[in-house]
Amino acid sequence: MIDFHCHLDLYPNPNDVVAKCRDQGLYVLSVTTTPSAWEGTEALRVGCHRIRTALGLHPEIAHQRKGELLLFEQLLPEVRYVGEVGLDGSPELEGTWATQIEVFERILEMCSDAKGRVLSIHSRRAARPVLDLLEAYPCAGTPVLHWYSGSRHDLDRAVAMGCWFSVGPAMTRSARGRELIARMPRTRVLTETDGPFTRNGRQPLMPGEVGQAVSFLAESWSVDSGCAAKQVRDNLRRLVTTSEGRP
Ligand code: MN
Question: What separation in Å is there between the alpha carbon of 194 and the centre of ligand 1?
Fold first, then answer.
């Protein structure tokens, strides 16, 4: 299974969780929310070659952690994956919007210089401004829009711009989420949990618990689940082998 957006470091017992990922042979993009969390999160995956640690600065805390952009810059040469980064247009974050833009723009600028990065991007209530910035920095790397929840129009725009998507069980629970997933090109879709922030009943989703997403992909592509899972694996392989500038 492929979990292309999971916060391994934020589970209560991350070492056990990582050991399970290793035993299950899961492919995980282990995203972080601050540059200062990167080193410890990277250390968690020692011996797990199917887990990669992404360097992130989450938009919800961009205003508190802007000072860590310096550390972001120092660490960027060591990583191929960036995330979680992006913008969040939720009303309660309105006062931080200018800083969010400043931080995300600086990150895209650094990624443009670094070349070849793959970015896991948050765009809640901010699809359009995220796409505007990605358009302004066309060499920032390969964008993977995580849990996309914008309009159909912006989705079509993202597709035309070459964006990829990671979709999780939570998205398949609403009619709107299902409609968006069905509209994504099947060659640019990956699966994710966004655990531990998403739940399956009362329990947080564990890494790789993407079965519901795979089932829905299978349904919307009119194939069986095995076939859909293979498509997602093929997609990941293509993403990993075609992006240039591997550090
Ligand atoms: Mn997340």
Answer: 5
- Rounded to the nearest angstrom, the distance between the alpha carbon of 5 and the centre of ligand 1 is 6
Residues in contact with 81: Cβ distance below 8 Å, sequence separation at least 6, in sequence order: 29, 52, 53, 54, 55, 117, 118, 119, 120
Distance 247 CA to ligand 1 centre (A): 24
User: Cα of 149 to ligand 1 centre, how many Å?
Assistant: 13
Q: What is the DSSP letter of 137?
A: -
Q: What pLDDT score does 201 carry? A: 85
pLDDT by residue (tens digit) across 3-12?
A: 999 999 999 9
Cβ(188)–Cβ(164) below 8 Å: yes
Compute the distance between CA of residue 38 and CA of residue 77 in angstroms, rounded to an integer.
13
Residue 232 CA, ligand 1 centroid: distance in Å? 20
CA end-to-end span of the chain? 25
How many CA atoms are closer than 13 Å to the CA of 194, on its beta-carbon side? 19
Q: Rounded to whole angstroms, how far apart are CA atoms 233 and 237?
A: 6
Pairwise CA distance, residues 60 & 70, whole Å: 18
pLDDT tens for residues 93-133?
999 999 999 999 999 999 999 999 999 999 999 999 999 99
